[in-house]
Fold this sequence. Notes:
Shape: elongated
Strand order of the largest sheet: 1-2-5-3-4
Structural class: alpha+beta
Largest sheet: 5 strands, mixed
Strand content: 5-15%
Distance between the termini: 121 Å
Order of helices and strands: HHHEEHHEHEHEH
Amino acid sequence: MKKNTFFVVAVAGLLMTSCASKKDLANCQTENKSLQSALQDTKESLAASKARVTSLEEQLAAQKEALNEQKRAYARLQQSLDKSLTNASQNNVSIEKLVDQINESNQYIRHLVEVKSKSDSLNMVLTNNLTRSLSKEELKEVDVQVLKGVVYISLADNMLYKSGSYEINDRAAETLSKIAKIIKDYKDYDVLIEGNTDNVPISKTNIRNNWDLSVLRASSVVQALQTQYGVDPKRLTAGGRGEYNPIADNTTEVGKQRNRRTQIIITPKLDEFMELIGQAPEQ
């Protein structure tokens, strides 16, 4: 009888130990999944931060190059003026005529400077208004810069779309609404939505390749701006460049993340530039 009792107690102990082990294993597996998810989030956040730093470095380099170009333009203008004075002296051109030519050229240059200054000021105000409206978290995934009079708003794919899809996710709604408000405030600007991908082939039955994916993503943003936020569709253009417009090396995860982007490009209307060209003096 004692032996039987001992056997029952031993079996019960083994069963309890087995149950406890299974429970511990399940807890460990759950904790492991949580840690893996946290690790992946950390990796993505780190990659986004590195991409942001690289983008800021590129903006600084572009600003330095723009300043150097202005210096070179001034030097060319001075050389042209010196040459005109020399030619006038050699060819006995009247001072009055030379002064008229210089005044005409200077007037046109001032006009160009005024137009450029106005455009730069509007772009700066537009950029500042947009960056002020975005939260710190949004600014980690939204890059705003001005290059040659054009405003580029670059959005990471993981903040806009569902994974491997062209459907816009819920998280992007607030950011797009802020961008749409800025677009609506500046009615004299046209807007191009441009999709870009990395070089990893897409494996979806309803999407043939990265060309399709980039265009479909741009089209999704255009339709959201139109239908959800009331942007005039006549101002919008959707386009895709697939994997063929990279801004970083696709051999690294950081590079691939930078290349997977959708750009909202805000530009002055083309007819304004054509009108400006038509005002150029003949001499």
